[in-house]
Amino acid sequence: MKTPALPIDEEQRLASLHDSGLLDTGTSERFERLTRLAKRLFNVPIALVTLVDGQYLRFKTSDGQAHDPFPRDISFCGHTILSPQPLIVNDAGSDERFADNPLVTGEAHLRFYAGHPLRLPDGAVAGSFCLLDRAPRDFSPAELDILRDFALIVENEFAVMSAATTDELTGLFNRRAFESLVKFTISSARRRAEPLTLGWLDLNGFKQINDTLGHNEGDEALRAMASIMRSNFRDADILVRYGGDEFAILFSDTSEDGAWIAMQHLAEQTEAWNASSGKPWKLAFSWGVSEFNHDGDGDVKAWIKDADKKMYDMKTSGRPR
């Protein structure tokens, strides 16, 4: 087993890592959502955001279980931080650096690893966004590009720029994150030959809530809508506050008919929420759904426009829920 060397700037790197405060904040739902998405897109059992401290690997995501600090000297991520390029290990069992590593020979039985180094705003390498599997596998150039984009999103979060990917009011992804993540979902759906459908949602009467009851109540309405969406859609579905009172949902492995049923269920659950909320306003919305055409030219703007038009048709037809 090859123990990872120390970076030449190790002292400065550790100082930057400790100054960042990332070691003090534990796991984060922001990163959990990204790793859940990565597990589905790459079809791997484990995806993690790690930090490489002096002696231990520390985790910003739990992958569904508690993680104690892990010895750095047997970690794959300890090797990842040594280069600006991603570390791809297709079969650790036949790689002399890792073949006798306890993570390979022991209960974990790891065989595949793909890790991209993560940088802090000052350029210091903090850790890795990594994918792991218990079977050897190839990793294509297209998958490598997607891994890089995931790492970039995490680096934005490291820079305490929550607005880069997260809507501060609702906690959903924002428009910028949507524009970054949509290509991941399209690439994954094409690779798996799975349907992918975009849902577009616009609140009805939202301006009236703001104008008559004030913006605090308007903000509460947006938060309530986001909460209902989170409760009624799957972890694999990407939920977005696109702007104002517009929301988007990327339904993975779902046809247009399936997405329509999901939106109808959301409308029913919203009506149930209205009946028990005690609020002086009611939530209502119009929606449209549009399935991505894998045989088309991949025009995302046209796809959004189609879903938006269907939403608008519902709003103007007198049929909005």
Automatic annotation (TrEMBL):
Its cofactor is Mg(2+). Its EC number is 2.7.7.65. Pfam families: GAF, GGDEF. It comes from the Bacteria. Keywords: Nucleotidyltransferase, Transferase. GO terms for molecular function: diguanylate cyclase activity. It catalyses: 2 GTP = 3',3'-c-di-GMP + 2 diphosphate. Residues 194-321 form the GGDEF domain. The keyword Ligase does not apply. Pathway: Purine metabolism; 3',5'-cyclic di-GMP biosynthesis. This is diguanylate cyclase. It comes from Phytobacter massiliensis. The gene is dosC_2.
